[in-house]
């Protein structure tokens, strides 16, 4: 394709993204009302992993073996252009809980929460849990929260009926202590000491929740801490009491250890899915699987560069799939571009739950695409990152816009333009070849940036 045609295509994709976005937002509601009328309201199982790279599952081409997750992906629609709301965990979780860009809330500017902050997800802000609870759902969070600390913030204050898990960004898999050495394992808002490997304990609690007798639908958020550092497989308890007591973030580990962590995660998901089958709820349960950001040290990034902590594709592109028996056809590989908050909007639409008009969603309902009522369409998405990890001063601004196949990227003083259709590895900077597209995306970022909260001075 010659330069003139490629540039014209870029302009059409850029303009078309907004048009298609509006059309999808306005369309499809009557169709899904009809679907809902013929079925019981579906349960929702949302599985979120921590620092799982785009290629870490074998179905995405990696050598790590994840048969249960591969099977789940084959039973629904697997996405190849799924993005996290942010390249670190707290903001992405805010994006999912609220269905909005993380930078609309002060806590979303914590990249991520380090432990001493007094900011968190405001209890008065509607969340997917509070909205579903208001629509008659039983709600539970098992696993990692990381959007605010006690006493002011907790899952129980943000719409969850119950919580079993950790509040901070990372815990040791065996001692369940955070980076400061403090126990971070809770039943609701009370600390508990329970022996066991964290992945297994979260799996067991999720299975128990699913198998309970109930007379109303459920929403379960299962937020595994795996495969986040420390690199401890189920057989590495001794390391948790020795090596990881005195070594920094990302230290240690190996590909073999990482494979063991993933196997435990995959086995756990398999047990949870088995519980759905054994309880007779699988056919009426939407299962969504996704990661909170790109991978870390031992992840497989496929064709992408970058990792957790930057806005190259490797830091943002994540595995994602959705299964809804009888509604979403199996064996689908979907190229639709999506971002974390779209999953919020999609769940609300699928359950017939209205968002709060005072807190309009940034996410879009993707069900019309998932069931073939709408074609795949271009999106315009935004990111901004200026890490404050560990209480350090914020670093240089990173910014990114994806519009159609075009991607604008800013890394401090350096700016780039990539066309992801033929350069997923972001190797060829096209800003001098397509200055108008470059300027359009640059301007669009500044417009969006002015609409969200500024970073603290």
In short, what is this structure?
By secondary structure, the protein is of the alpha/beta class.
Give an overview in words.
With 457 residues, the protein is of the alpha/beta class. It is 30% helix and 17% strand. The chain has helices at residues 3-26, 29-38, 67-74, 89-98, 128-134, 198-211, 237-241, 255-278, 313-316, 340-350, 367-370, 435-451, and strands spanning 43-49, 77-83, 138-144, 162-166, 186-187, 190-191, 218-223, 285-291, 320-323, 332-339, 380-385, 398-403, 406-411, 414-419. The strands form 2 sheets. It has a 10-stranded mixed β-sheet, sandwiched between helices. α4 runs parallel beside α10 and α6 (198-211) runs parallel beside α8.
Question: Low-confidence spans: pLDDT under 50, at least 5 residues?
Answer: 1-29
In percent, how helical is the residue content? 25-40%
Major beta-sheet overview: 10 strands, mixed
Strand arrangement in the largest pleated sheet: 6-5-4-3-7-1-8-9-2-10
Into which percentage range does the β-strand content fall? 15-25%
Number of strands: 14
Q: Helix and strand succession?
A: HHEHEHHEEEEHEHHEHEEHHEEEEH
Radius of gyration: 21 Å
Q: What's the end-to-end separation, in Å? A: 46 Å
- Specify the overall morphology: globular
Q: Give the mean pLDDT.
A: 91
Secondary-structure-based class equals alpha/beta
- Structure annotation, total helices: 12
């Amino acid at each position: 394709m010659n330069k003139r045609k490629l540039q014209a295509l870029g302009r059409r994709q850029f303009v078309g993204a907004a048009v298609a976005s509006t059309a999808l937002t306005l369309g499809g509601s009557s169709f899904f009302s009809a679907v809902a009328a013929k079925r019981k309201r579906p349960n929702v199982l949302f599985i979120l992993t921590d620092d799982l790279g785009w290629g870490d599952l074998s179905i995405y081409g990696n050598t790590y073996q994840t048969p249960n997750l591969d099977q789940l992906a084959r039973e629904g629609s697997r996405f190849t252009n799924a993005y996290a709301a942010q390249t670190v965990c707290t903001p992405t979780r805010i994006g999912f809980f609220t269905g909005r860009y993380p930078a609309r809330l002060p806590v979303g500017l914590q990249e991520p929460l380090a432990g001493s902050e007094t900011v968190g997800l405001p209890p008065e802000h509607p969340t997917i849990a509070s909205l579903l609870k208001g629509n008659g759902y039983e709600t539970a969070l098992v696993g990692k929260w990381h959007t605010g600390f006690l006493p002011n913030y907790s899952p129980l204050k943000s719409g969850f009926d119950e919580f079993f898990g950790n509040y901070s960004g990372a815990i040791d898999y065996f001692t369940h202590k955070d980076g400061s050495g403090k126990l971070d394992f809770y039943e609701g808002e009370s600390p508990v000491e329970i022996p066991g490997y964290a992945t297994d304990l979260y799996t067991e609690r999720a299975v128990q929740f699913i198998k309970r007798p109930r007379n109303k639908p459920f929403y379960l958020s299962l937020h595994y801490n795996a495969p986040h550092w420390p690199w401890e497989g189920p057989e590495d308890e001794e390391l948790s009491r020795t090596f990881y007591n005195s070594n920094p973030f990302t230290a240690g580990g190996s590909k073999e250890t990482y494979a063991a962590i993933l196997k435990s995660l995959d086995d756990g998901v398999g047990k949870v899915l088995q519980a759905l089958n054994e309880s007779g709820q699988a056919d009426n349960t939407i299962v969504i699987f996704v990661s909170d950001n790109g991978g870390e040290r031992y992840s497989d990034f496929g064709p992408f560069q970058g990792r957790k902590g930057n806005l190259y594709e490797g830091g943002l592109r994540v595995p994602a799939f959705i299964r809804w028996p009888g509604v979403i056809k199996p064996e689908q590989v979907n190229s639709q571009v999506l971002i974390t908050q779209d999953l919020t909007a999609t769940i609300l639409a699928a359950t017939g739950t209205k968002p709060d008009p005072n807190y309009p969603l940034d996410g879009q309902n993707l069900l019309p695409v998932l069931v073939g009522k709408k074609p795949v369409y271009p999106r315009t998405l935004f990111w901004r990152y200026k890490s404050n990890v560990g209480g350090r001063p914020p670093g240089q601004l990173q910014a990114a816009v994806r519009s159609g196949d075009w991607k604008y990227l800013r890394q401090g003083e350096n700016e780039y333009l990539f066309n992801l259709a033929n350069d997923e590895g972001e190797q060829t900077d096209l800003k001098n070849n397509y200055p108008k597209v470059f300027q359009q995306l640059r301007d669009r970022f500044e417009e969006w940036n002015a609409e969200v909260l500024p970073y603290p001075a």
